[in-house]
């Protein structure tokens, strides 16, 4: 959109690719080798591939690694692995500089919400699977990047999380967590997970507080409790 400022990846470019071989239906590594690597080679983007072996492996990698040897970080997985990467970067002592490193998402998971959003805002038709992967890889090959907002959430236990899409609690979160064991089904895991959670519907109790719009305009209004109908 007009007014946005874009950076451009250098050429030649060296990318660290963080890949979860278990994401989605388990084809992320095969798809990377068959679809992504040839396109990146044509665009003069060299890759170092880091294949995760356990939960939080990517988190630890970007938190502790010297990232100066790479021009960009590429996540080949679903939204969950990018969540790990973002939160790992934010735990670094030099997080302000680390977060300036361009991030790219290539769809290899079950939902791929961020990749689908980027595909849409880039002006491409709504697509999925291999076509979505090709489109997102082409965006990476062009090398343009811009800033993206993050959401910060602190829990009552003292934990802090950063998100690029949104936070979920209650039923939707349970569907996501409970359907993990059906990853081999791809995106259909969410349908099965929803049906199972509906069958054993739980009751969630919580309290929501919010700041009114006036507080963002310089006011100091205290948080208000929500009112129901």
Automatic annotation (TrEMBL):
One of its GO terms (molecular function) is sphingosine kinase activity. GO terms for cellular component: cytoplasm; endomembrane system; membrane. InterPro entries: ATP-NAD_kinase_N (IPR017438), Diacylglycerol_kinase_cat_dom (IPR001206), Lipid_Phosphate_FormReg (IPR050187), NAD/diacylglycerol_kinase_sf (IPR016064). The gene is Sphk1. Keywords: ATP-binding, Kinase, Membrane, Nucleotide-binding, Transferase. It is an enzyme of class 2 (transferase). Pfam families: DAGK_cat (PF00781). One of its GO terms (biological process) is sphingosine biosynthetic process. Residues 10-157 form the DAGKc domain. The keyword Nucleotide-binding applies. It comes from Cettia cetti. Coiled coil: none annotated. This is sphingosine kinase. It is found in: Endomembrane system. The keyword Nucleotide-binding applies. Its EC number is 2.7.1.91.
């Amino acid at each position: 959109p007009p007014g946005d400022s874009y950076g451009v990846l250098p050429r030649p470019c060296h990318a660290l690719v963080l890949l979860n071989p278990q994401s989605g239906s388990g084809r992320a590594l095969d798809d990377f080798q068959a679809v992504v690597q040839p396109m990146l080679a044509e665009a003069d983007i060299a890759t170092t591939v880091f294949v995760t072996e356990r939960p939080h492996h990517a988190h630890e990698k970007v938190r502790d690694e010297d990232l100066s040897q790479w021009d960009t970080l590429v996540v080949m997985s679903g939204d969950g692995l990018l969540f790990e990467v973002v939160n790992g970067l934010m735990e670094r002592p030099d997080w302000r500089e680390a977060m300036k490193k361009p991030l790219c998402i290539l769809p290899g998971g079950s939902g791929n919400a961020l990749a689908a959003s980027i595909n849409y805002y880039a002006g491409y038709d709504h697509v999925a699977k291999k076509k979505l992967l090709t489109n997102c890889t082409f965006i990476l090959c062009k090398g343009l990047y811009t800033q993206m907002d993050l959401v910060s959430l602190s829990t009552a236990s003292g934990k802090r999380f950063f998100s690029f899409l949104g936070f979920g609690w209650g039923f939707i979160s349970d569907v996501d967590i409970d359907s993990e064991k059906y990853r081999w089904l791809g995106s259909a895991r969410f349908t099965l997970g929803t049906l199972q959670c509906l069958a054993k519907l739980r009751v969630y109790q919580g309290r929501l507080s919010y700041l009114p719009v006036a507080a963002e305009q310089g006011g100091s209004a205290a948080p208000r409790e929500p009112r129901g109908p």
